[in-house]
Amino acid sequence: MDISVVVPLLNEVESLPELTAWISRVMEANRFTYEVILVDDGSRDGSWEAISGLHAQNPAIRGIKFRRNYGKSAALNTGFEAAQGNVIITMDADLQDSPDEIPELYRRIIEEKYDLISGWKAKRYDPLSKTIPTRLFNAATRSMSGIDNLHDFNCGLKAYRKAVVKNIEVYGEMHRYIPVIAKWAGFTKIGEQVVEHRARKYGTTKFGMSRFINGFLDLLSIFFVGKFGKRPMHFFGSMGVLSFFLGLVMAVWILAEKLIHISNNEKYRNATDQPLFYLALVAIIVGFQLFLTGFVAELVSRNSSERNNYQIEETL
Predict the structure, then answer these.
(1) Which residues contact 47 (CB under 8 A, 6 or more apart)?
(2) Cα dist from 269 to 230, 247, 261, 276, whole Å
(3) What is the three-class DSSP state of 246?
(4) pLDDT digit string, tens, across residues 209-263
């Protein structure tokens, strides 16, 4: 199969007939073998009934229904597991992504050997309350991930080589950072394509303001797990040793200063009367706790079933 189109959706019953008909026209015009996987993330507006009807008309349209709402990341991950195509295309169900972009995305994956192509909606039809925070998050993600050639990490329209989606896991609200997850998994040939952004035709957005806070927390989480997930002692231990060393230096300084004053018969303050004493004490205790945290995390990591799960691209 050439292409699997994975579409997560929540209460998008109005747009599904138009979207699937558009995708089918594009696929047939380019003679692609394809499937469309519609993942219903707990809709309550009749979306599943619409999907069932579309499947009856066109067997290439498949459906997966969640019992309740789990979120976009869960829908994408489930769609990735079910996908059979050599190239997997993801797009939103709200008709803001154009299926006409699919042939060029497919060509770049197949001919230019990209692992992942992320869409960039250079011209957007979103309010400033959404576009300004999005730009800030994209800038922060570029800085932390080192993927400096992407302008929009969260664009729903993306294309993946099959090996990518079969070797990554998307959970929580990590769908915003799939390029980062792919990079940490060893898929480093990541490109970008300017795509059309269309105004929403039906319904309303399903994401509230909480997505900005959650997005920032997920970015910190994925950065830590990707970099230190298999060696947590390097993170906690380094910080612990540094804090312990600084506290020890301050303690030695206080002691040395007191001994110098005593030897010179000078008036001196008790160590406990100095603010520096308490800073030293806190630094030593925090350093010791961080070191123990790293030690415990290392034990957990070594006993994890994923401790020796590494990405192998090819064997002979």
Answers:
(1) 9, 10, 11, 12, 13, 16, 40
(2) 47, 19, 9, 12
(3) helix
(4) 566 666 666 667 767 766 676 677 878 888 888 999 999 999 898 888 888 888 8
Handedness of CA 42, 85, 103, 142 (dihedral sign): positive
Rg of the chain over Cα atoms, rounded to whole angstroms, equals 26
Q: Which residues, in sequence order, are CB contacts of 304 under 8 Å at separation 6+?
A: none
Beta strand spans in the chain (E): 3-9, 34-40, 61-65, 87-90, 116-120, 158-161, 190-194
CA-to-CA distance for 16 and 291, rounded, in angstroms? Answer: 53
Using CA atoms, how far apart are residues 284 and 249, in angstroms rounded to an integer?
10
The letter for the amino acid at 272 is T
pLDDT tens column, 116-126: 999 998 776 66
Which residue type occupies 217?
L
pTM: 0.72
Can you tell me the distance from the alpha carbon of 189 to that of 116, in angstroms, rounded to the nearest whole number?
A: 7
Burial level of 113, CB count in 10 A (0-12/13-18/19+)? exposed
- Return the amino acid letter for 71: G
173-192 confidence digits (pLDDT tens): 788 889 988 998 889 999 99
The answer to whether the CB of 90 falls within 8 A of the CB of 158 is yes
Between the CA of residue 62 and those of 17, 96, 257, what are the distances in Å? 13, 21, 76
Tokens of 28: 């047939």
